[in-house]
Write a structure and sequence with these properties.
Strand order of the largest sheet: 1-2-3
Strand content: 5-15%
Distance between the termini: 26 Å
Structural class: mainly alpha
Helix content: 55-70%
Largest sheet: 3 strands, antiparallel
Oligomer: single chain
Length: 244
């Protein structure tokens, strides 16, 4: 039997994004293989009916984290719309961090319920990253932030200077070069910081899983559910999407 992999057995988003994202978030695949893939109906991508609720939450949050990382990366790589609307990319980055924290919370609930002790997997690195994204992401609720171009490079106010440049005319006529940074440089730096936090956190969950997956209660809960003989035309996949 061929080895299970995201490139072959993931859903469309996972298959399409995995080659480019693997260098940044390779631990996603191991976690998916251990905890998510076993929730599927045999031979298909859909989840079994009646699976454990906390395991389904784990699958949904894990997948949502990946999708938002993938979408942010694609927009950065393609320089979507000339990176004029970086706050939309920060929305993906922040959501990835937020839902990653929920993934860990779900994992810790399963761990404690099965092993009767708390997991020491921490969400602190992700919480710090998520907080750092809010400055740019929250611009979604305000008028578009002014950007400037120098020698063909789009610049954005540094995080601590965004309030100073809320007015477009300030950025147009009274800008100070030290107050600005290249949008792409900032986005790539923040993307890599997020992925570093994801990698270390998923590694911690991977290490905690060594004992967890041998636990009888864990095995029982992960095995719950049945494969419908006639599934709905729209059903949740093991990665959290809908197919049909």
């Amino acid at each position: 039997m061929a080895e299970v992999s995201l490139l072959v057995d993931g859903d469309e988003t996972e298959r399409n994004a995995w080659e480019s994202l693997r260098p940044y978030f390779h631990r996603y695949e191991g976690f998916w293989h251990t905890h998510i893939f076993p929730l599927r109906c045999p031979g298909v991508i859909t989840l079994r009916d009646g699976i454990d609720e906390e395991f389904e939450t784990l699958a949904m949050c894990n997948y949502t984290t990946f999708v938002n990382v993938a979408r942010a990366f694609q927009k950065i790589q393609s320089k979507s719309e000339g990176l004029k609307f970086s706050e939309e990319i920060y929305s993906n980055l922040q959501r990835a961090a937020e839902v990653a924290i929920k993934t860990v919370d779900s994992f810790r609930k399963i761990y404690q319920a099965c092993l009767n002790r708390k997991s020491d997997v921490s969400t602190s690195p992700l919480s710090k990253i998520e907080l750092s994204f809010k400055t740019y992401r929250n611009i979604l609720h305000d008028p578009i932030l002014a950007t400037v171009k120098k020698d063909g490079v789009r610049l954005i106010p540094r995080r601590d200077k965004t309030e100073k440049y809320r007015r477009w005319t300030t950025a147009m006529y009274h800008q100070e070069p030290v107050d600005f940074v290249a949008v792409e440089t900032q986005l790539r730096s923040d993307f890599e910081a997020l992925c570093s936090a994801l990698q270390s956190t998923w590694k911690a969950m991977e290490e905690a899983s060594i004992v967890l997956i041998k636990n009888r209660e864990y095995i029982r809960r992960r095995s719950k559910g049945v494969s419908p003989s006639k599934p709905s035309t729209v059903v949740p996949s093991a990665s959290g999407t809908s197919v049909g």
